[in-house]
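To: structure desk
From: M.T.
Subject: fold request, one chain
Message: Could you run this one when you get a chance? Sequence is below, nothing fancy, just the single chain.
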Amino acid sequence: MNRSLSDLVNCVVRASDGDIGLVQQFYFNDYSWTIRYMVMNTVIWRPGRQVLISPVALNKPEWKARVFPVNLTKLQVQHSPNIDTAQPVSRQHEVELFKYYGWPVYWGSNPYVGIGYPVPTNLPSIAEEKKGLPEKSEDDPHLRSTDQVAGYHVQATDGEIGHVQDYIVDDETWTICYIVVNTRNWWPGKKVLVSPRWIERVSWEESKLFVDLSRESVRNSPEYDPSKPVSLDYEGRLFGHYGRKND
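Reply: Done. Structure tokens follow.
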């Protein structure tokens, strides 16, 4: 099912021996547009600490209760590597994190996902995502914070159309299916969805996403209502409007 990432913020993260924190934000890979880590604040257990948790550690979420059970213990989380979300996540930190928890590098070969929760098998490996990157790079240039990218301007082929407000994610594969664009500066009150497939490039220096859509086509696209789930009917109308295939 598709879900808004903003709706997942402040959900409780529950270890095997008790509640350990609240979801604060997420890190995603801008090459594959998949969620790599959940950022958890341990405010309800040990205030002031932030911890990265990979989706491979998630058991079946309790959506109505707004709880993310994880197959970790409080002690494991307590002694996990520290993370400063104000700084880019280094590759060394990722290596330390994966070694500490024993998480597999390849998503498909994952023996750690809890019973009852689907294993995301169609995601690229970390190694695949990092192909072509300089070996001496200390930071992972493809890893982005959802909080960081929220607010980025979105540029159509003929001008700006709005800014990034939210993300719609598939809760089984943890793939970002859509970017929620708020067009209030151009067409007050309207929100639209843009698929990552339609993003031509991202300029991190300009804090801007460039899409291969015209302003007029975006203006006339089906409006997104955050109070309603993204249905198959809506997706059909959205892709049909842009003349794109949804496969």
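Reply (cont.): Residues 90 and 139 are 4 Å apart (CA to CA). Let me know if you need anything else for the meeting.
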